[in-house]
Batch of 3 targets.
Target 1
Amino acid sequence: MHGKILRYSISTGSGVVTNSSKKIFELRKESWHDSRFLPVVGMLVEFRCDSNGYSITDAKASYYQDFPPDSIIKEIDFWKSNSDEELKQKEQDIRNQIAQKIFKETNYFTLRSIELTSSVQDCLKEYFAQEFSAINFIMNESNEKAKINYLQTKRFLLKAMDYLVFTDRNITMDTFSIDLQRLNRLEYSYKNFTKNININAEKIYEESFLEMQYNYKGVSKAILGTREKILQLNNKIRNSVFEIKQIRLKLENKKNDEKALNVKLENIRAIISKSEEEIKILQKTLENLTKLAEDFKVQFFKLFETTFKKFYELLIDKTVEAMNICATQLDNRIWKLGMSSKAIKNMFFKHDINDSYCTMTFLGQYLRRLDKNKLSENEKAVYNYYYKYKQTHEKKFLIFTTNQKLEMSLKIQIMSISKDYSVVIVKKDGEFYANISSQKFELGYIDPYVDADIKQLLEEARSSKYNENTQFTIVSKEQIMGLQD
């Protein structure tokens, strides 16, 4: 049957599906058999039920998810059919009807060229419709600039999400279901693109281009019809020749009306002559149509092959970009939830972590534990990516305090503004001098109760190479007094 998911929870692994009659069916994760997609609310699905008629035993995402205005198949067709196979057959039948109409309206005896019905680009867009739909949706809705590399950071993105869900009981996996669904769909496409290195372009040409060329299909139908007509005429000639032999035998035996036999003989000869003339005309037509079809097929295959390769490369690049956008959106959601979570504040940041709760922090923690002299090639690539990202996006803030509450309060405030903000905590004036002399800070905070000459600290900062223009704020005593547990 065809249906739509009304509710689904990744956390519980259960949901419900409705069909065209508004009947409700129970869907459980054990019954979901689709590696391309995760079940999400609003998805159109193809499913089967057990004997009780309510519990789904097998379900997957339908091939048909979108119905553009110019689509042959409409949404009403989806609800009136029971399977994607049935819908695809209907789609093929409609295409055949269009080709049949063109066939009836075309004079193939005078045809000198085959016109394109659909361009190579349009055919490829339709062939890759699902992939383009997923990519365009992401591109159009996102204004992300700084994107994390999903392929490089996937493991740590999922780790940040899992740790957040595990630590904060108020957050479930359902919070991230849409993001995970989009990533899963894009990653499935990406794997197919990169796995299918030796692609059979000729097969795709037949399926996605020639099948869309109704004028070409009309010529192909005319070729088959012409061959059949020539075969019929040849059979007619053979039968007529046999009849002539029979008549001649009768004439030799003089057992029948000789005059009637001669008239019949002339009629048969006329039929043979007419058939032979028709065959000549049909043979020329057949040769012309065959040449037109072959020329059309060869001519556009070269263009198709070149365009297909460009489309394929473009799709890989755009899919990677879309994955990065989705990963960044998911990372942003994780960061915002993590920085506002009391559980994360109490559990995660108690380990003196001074970077915001996000993918890059988990990646950085992993890299710091590695032996830099024994990195694999993949680890080197991730290592280089991480530090390049940090150099490009990271902004540092300095906090000089020995007050644990003030330290935690300030760094949570700072890192809640941007996930690329990190803090450096110093507890002694020597540490302060060392840090302002070695790196630039966007802003500095100084606890008025630190055991150091604050005036001297500020003078040193203004005379430093990196922080002569950096503003340093003295935290008010009222702010410190207002801190609560």
Target 2
Amino acid sequence: MSGEAPLIGVLGGYGAVGAAAARVLAAEGEFRLRIGGRDPEAAERCAASLGGAAEAREADARSDASLERFAQGCDVVLHCAGPAYELADRPRRAAAAAGADYVDVMDGCGPAPAPAGERTAVLSAGLSPGLSGLLPRLLTDGRAPLGAARFTGYYVSLGAFTRTGAMDYLLSLDRGYGTPRAQWRDGHVVRGVLRGAEERVVAGVPHPVTVYPYLTQELVGQARALGLAEARWYNGFDGHHLLDALNRYRSGDDRAGGLEAQAAGVVRASTLDALGRSPYHVLCGVLERPGPEGAPVRRAVIRGADGSAMTGVVGAVAAREVARGRVPRGVHRAAQVLPTRGVMDALGRHLPDTVVTFSDDVPAAGVVSADPVMEVGVL
């Protein structure tokens, strides 16, 4: 394809995530785009809205043959279709068979073998996982080792789940995405050491929320790479309906009727929590470096209104970096290879209601907080 602009195929390109990613890539002005999905008319409408550099192709993500036809001729395939955990690694295998590089806004669903032909694959290039994993690098400037540094991260959201989002959320609970009540300590995952659900105040959220400790594999990877002494992650719930539904699912009380019925329950619960309220997504990271004069604390807060759009921006940045040849060959997690400043800049340019804030606090001498709790309004 010498002399032509790189072709990026966006699978699921007219959905909420894919359309956001496509708009970002179209705004870059240096790529040709291919919008794919099962509804050819929706794909055509999306492509037309992006201008002359976009084309539409029908693509059934549940068909290997259809996926391979879609990927043929692409330099990069950006997978934004779902439910990602049901599609498993089909899109990744199709991209490899077509000789294309690959980006997935989810975690890639299972072990990540090296791409065929020494291609590049970037997985977990979304909001969470993805943007969530960049928090430790934002706070450390990507430098390692950090010695005694301790990191605590939070993801708090409010808003109705889509059906696809609910299915992926439930499936992730059973696929080893993280470990409940665990923390990273001195180079190891230590299980069962943290309390269960509790109420906390988190920076960027205007009132207390219920948080639950859930150490993600993404954070484990960052803690290992950055040499963190301790790392914890909490998922936050603004309201009780969604948390109650997930607790019923975890306990096995809500697994009758199959995944569709369970996902419908999650959609209903999240809708009840969000009723009459403005949706938001908050990622908050806290880094402590204990010393003889206390534990200086640095915080980063990322707050946005549209989780699908935030996911799309991160996926687009990943596809852009791969298409530009800035990511080495092989399989990578997005949080390890994406440029933190490039992602933050893209969020600011394409989602002006998304705000990134940093702060530094120096506590009184001798005061060391082993489990930092943030105060409202301190950003």
Target 3
Amino acid sequence: MTTLATGPDTLTRDALAVLQPGFDGTTAPDWVRRRLGEGLASVALFGRNVVTEEQVTALTAELRAERDDLLVAIDEESGDVTRLDVRTGSSFPGNHALGAVDDPGLTRAVSRELGRRLAACGVNFDWAPSADVNANPDNPVIGVRSFGASTDLVARHTAAWVEGLQSTGVAACTKHFPGHGDTNVDSHHAVPRIDVDADTLYARELPPFRAAIAAGTRAIMSAHILVPALDPDRPGTLSRRILTELLRDELGYRGLIVTDGMEMRAISGTYGLEHGVVLAIAAGADAICVGGGLCDEGTVLGLRDALVAAVRSGELPEERLADAAARVRDLAAWTAGVRAAASATVPEPEVGLVAARRALRVTRAGAAAPADTPVFVAQFEPARNIAVGDQTPWGVAAELERLLPGTASGSFTGEGGGPEALAAADGRRIVAVVRDEHRHGWMRSALDTLLAARPDTVVVEMGLPQAAPRGALHIATYGAARVCGVAAAEAVVAG
């Protein structure tokens, strides 16, 4: 039975304990150090906090000097969504590439090596994997972050990913419950809605989360999505029906429930940040993710005070806040108890490249000649979603410049992209790099222009390969991680 707070200090400590805030900078700010001494139990790292692994290791050591049992979280999915490799591109392919290979042993090995690297840097909590079934190929925010469109495939790889990561002592956080795959709106901007019946949801969206629970996932992240078949009034993050009655009572989940980023417009733009946080804890969430955008001390203090005020007014039961804080501390204790697991993990530094090579799908139109002279790489840039961010490089240009010295490249977007790329190529063979061609009419038109003028063009698709293969050589990588670009460049040269 939960012990109730006996005084304001305990209440304040519990309110701080449920927050997982971010901060600015590559060293530990003074305000974060102070709040750790007052009860803050978690911090989150984002791309802005990462320069090198050595720097991250020093940063986490600074933080743990204030609190040894600290949860240090990161949004490291590998593939397109990377924070540890934010400046170079990920050393591991993402979920869709792993799903394309469909070897759970390989998925387990990739996540184990990722976990080993995270643990070596002092990170012990990863907001991954995505267990979303990519039922809607036009989904603007999931896409290659999903293992695929098959529920069974997603379920087996979600379980393997959780097992591999947690074997290193890093807690997995399976997301986005109850499933973000069948949406056509990005919850960073508005509230997505899934209008399917309950039977479809139970059969399609929930099995990967059941598999994650069976695999022992230590945390599950809620989605800011409205699912009328489950709750017609509130999105998942704020729904007692979804977080408590479904996830806890029906699925039997006993671990930590974490919210997706609360400053996302689906919550903050509809309910307000502070009120949304209170509603989330009341609904059954245990930890509040905040800091992708708002990362200052004032935000943390405002949320702390909102939770304390809600308890004192009776809006939020004191025992619910105390229970949430206890779950955060329990997870921190688990990570401390298995911390030695990472040092016992045998490094497999090449496993990411091995996986990326295995994921490639190459389609040849006749006898496609290998590229053995410098080429022109035309990269067609779609707008990136917030989860991926715009800091991380992608493509094949850097690797082709290494393999074929003298190779040049350019980036193009919009209706004039095709003619501009053709002119910039100046007679050289073109390697056209696209991302989700099926979602962008201007990108299709650009390829039409290039292929009409230069049928020997090589097409590299680094998003969802939904469009029919075309070009003298078509290479699908199933993601835009750095290693996917390396594997694709090798295939271009091999022909």
